[in-house]
């Protein structure tokens, strides 16, 4: 299959590209190579890379020539950044998705939107099914929910062949050091403070990036047009427990754990019911968070300083870190 993977040089997109190339698909990547998308993530892979933005119709048209499907990973994804400034989230996530949908319509090809559990909002008990209304709480999740609604409208209005994959919190190699796990791992290894927001009792369900990538492929292959599918992790964890486990795995000191000011509007808990996709395609996560998943991720960061060091030394990263944590990074 000839697939256009938008955002294919990012964390989740590149995991998907690695899998599809190994499976023999013909992959073209469209990526703006902003702070989180990197050519290095595609090292050793035989893919065409078109550098451009998804909200640029010219770049999209060029990248989409002759493809049979478009899968969209390209997004601004970090809640904390969206709280500081949501402009790029609206542009990339909402306008970018619309631009890709228009191209998919012109070409008559299948469109897969990579989305998030955060579009449903926070849930105290139980798990969200795809029937739950969208009740996003952050500027980030609102921009993703808006994109999901545009995708569903494209099916309803024009009969477009679209599907949505909504994932839970991902972890694994090549995640930009702004999300919980890479931030904690790098600080733990280098003796810095581990900044836990608020009481640290928030709950997230962890999904290895390779499992999310295989779930997205199941949605691409088997999803019914106009449908959304939850692609949830199997391990529900309290943030503080994840941080303690990282302390153990890195031989850091528990005294490095520091409670800091809570995130504004912090969602307490996310949880997805993924039975719709399991029944449709037999998809299930394979990597266990406790049995090797987190540990191998810690090893990956230890062994790949050449990968993360240049990222954390940029002026942009240091300025971001200072704004969120009120200090310079220690790694
Ligand atoms: O649930 C899926 C979503 O997961 C994705 O759609 C988002 O793109 C992705 O960023 C992630 O969102 P979260 O806000 O849940 O992920 P993050 O890694 O930023 O934070 C995870 C939890 O850890 C959250 O409760 C906030 C907390 N946290 C995070 C950071 C960065 C801390 O306590 N300290 C930190 O320094």
TrEMBL record:
Co-factor requirement: NAD(+)
NAD(P)-binding domain location: 4-292
Name of a matching Pfam family: GDP_Man_Dehyd
Source domain of life: Bacteria
A Gene Ontology molecular function term of the record: dTDP-glucose 4,6-dehydratase activity
Major enzyme class: lyase
Catalytic activity: dTDP-alpha-D-glucose = dTDP-4-dehydro-6-deoxy-alpha-D-glucose + H2O
EC number assigned by the record: 4.2.1.46
Similarity comment text for this entry: Belongs to the NAD(P)-dependent epimerase/dehydratase family. dTDP-glucose dehydratase subfamily.
Protein name: dTDP-glucose 4,6-dehydratase
UniProt lineage: Bacteria, Bacillati, Actinomycetota, Thermoleophilia, Solirubrobacterales
């Amino acid at each position: 299959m000839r697939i256009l993977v938008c955002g294919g040089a990012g964390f989740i997109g590149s995991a998907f590209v690695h899998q599809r190339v190994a499976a023999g698909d013909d992959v073209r990547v469209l990526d703006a190579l902003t702070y989180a998308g990197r050519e290095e993530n595609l090292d050793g892979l035989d893919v065409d890379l078109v550098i451009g933005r998804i909200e640029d119709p010219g770049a999209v048209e060029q990248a989409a020539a002759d493809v049979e499907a478009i899968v969209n990973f390209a997004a601004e994804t970090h809640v904390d950044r969206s709280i500081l400034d949501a402009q790029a989230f609206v542009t990339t996530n909402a306008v970018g998705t619309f631009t890709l949908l228009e191209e998919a319509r012109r070409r008559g090809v299948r469109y897969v939107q990579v989305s998030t559990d955060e579009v449903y909002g926070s849930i105290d008990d139980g798990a969200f099914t795809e029937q739950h209304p969208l009740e996003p709480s952050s500027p980030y999740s609102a921009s993703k929910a808006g994109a999901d609604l545009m995708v569903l409208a494209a099916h309803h209005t024009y009969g477009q062949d679209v599907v949505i994959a909504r994932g839970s919190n991902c972890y694994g190699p090549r995640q930009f050091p702004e999300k919980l796990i890479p931030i904690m791992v790098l600080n733990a290894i280098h003796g810095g403070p581990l900044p836990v927001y608020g009481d640290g009792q928030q709950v997230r369900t962890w999904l290895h990036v390779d499992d999310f990538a295989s779930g997205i492929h199941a949605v691409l292959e088997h999803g019914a047009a106009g449908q959304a599918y939850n692609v949830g992790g199997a391990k529900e964890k309290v943030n503080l427990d994840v941080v303690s486990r990282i302390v153990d795995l890195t031989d850091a000191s528990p005294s490095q754990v520091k409670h800091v000011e809570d995130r504004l509007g912090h969602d307490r808990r996310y949880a997805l019911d993924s039975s719709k996709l399991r029944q449709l395609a037999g998809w299930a996560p394979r990597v266990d968070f406790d049995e090797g998943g987190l540990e191998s991720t810690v090893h990956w960061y230890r062994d790949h300083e050449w990968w993360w060091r240049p990222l954390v030394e940029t002026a942009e990263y240091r300025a971001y870190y200072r704004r969120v944590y009120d200090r310079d990074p220690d790694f």
